[in-house]
Design a protein that fits this description.
Length: about 270
């Protein structure tokens, strides 16, 4: 599921099993719809500061996600169908299972080129998001482990661990800001990520968001700016479109995604 250290961190954060930020989704579910509307973890960086109710189940699917990176003279482009399955287990807890059933990785540089296909790594995660006591603030934690069990050339070189925290600040009925911090560890390498997201609900069904992301890994620091749009035709279905672009430092050049999220349960 990996082809550069930076993109590995971004993909894991994105689909919530390593760390996606769906601040706007939290806004839409809290203001535009009823309280029983589920909070989806995609799109964007981080995850929603809310766990699914007991017996609730959500399927979040990239259709696909895409990334482009230039590192040390090598150009890498990858398409991935990132999948996240979420289940509420009660007491503000949620189990998550993630993978990418199909990946296409194309690399070129130094006079060579190659294309690889295969399944990405499997991730297991546990989210804890206690019920908010203040209508303005909500928060949650997500810990996960990603196993190096994907196809050769796609998978991580070894197991990776992640711990993330997200805090949402509801400014009013239409606006919110979410703050995200994440730490990842693979072998003796650590990655630190911070992100902020501003979401705005245009209508009950349509919303937009903008985000800024900073990442530090192996002595190298970079930043991304991104934006996206979400459409909820009903409370159990969400479509999303998003992108992020490097604006400073050393990080993945482009990230983009198109996806759908569906909720099944009470």
């Amino acid at each position: 599921m990996d082809f550069t250290g930076y993109d590995r961190s971004f993909r894991m954060l994105r689909h919530g099993v390593a760390l996606s930020l769906a601040v706007f989704v939290c806004l839409a579910t809290s203001s535009a719809f009823a309280d029983d509307t589920p909070s989806y973890d995609r799109p964007g960086f981080g995850f929603a500061p809310a766990a699914l109710p007991l017996g609730g189940f959500a399927w979040e699917q990239g259709l696909p996600s895409w990334s482009l990176d230039h590192t040390d003279g090598t150009r890498s482009s990858q398409y991935t169908t990132d999948t996240l399955l979420r289940m509420g287990v009660g007491n503000d807890l949620e189990l998550q299972l993630g993978t990418s059933p199909f990946n296409r990785l194309a690399q070129s540089g130094m006079g060579t080129s190659q294309v690889r296909y295969g399944r990405g790594d499997t991730s297991l995660g546990l989210k804890w998001a206690p019920a908010a006591l203040d209508p303005v603030w909500s928060w949650g934690w997500l810990g996960s482990v990603e196993f190096a069990d994907g196809a050769s050339g796609i998978r991580n070189p070894q197991r990776q661990y992640s711990l993330g925290a997200t805090v949402d600040q509801q400014l009013d009925d239409k606006r919110s800001i979410t703050y995200v911090a994440q730490w990842q560890r693979m072998g003796n390498q650590g990655t630190y990520l911070g992100a902020g997201n501003y979401g705005y609900a245009i209508t009950k069904a349509w919303g937009i968001y903008a985000e800024a992301v900073a990442l530090h890994q192996q002595g190298r620091t970079g930043g991304l700016l991104g934006a996206g749009v979400t459409w909820l035709p009903n409370v159990r279905l969400q479509w999303d479109l998003s992108f992020d672009h490097r604006f400073v430092g050393h990080t993945t050049d482009w990230l983009a995604g198109f996806g759908v999220s569906m909720y099944f349960g009470p």
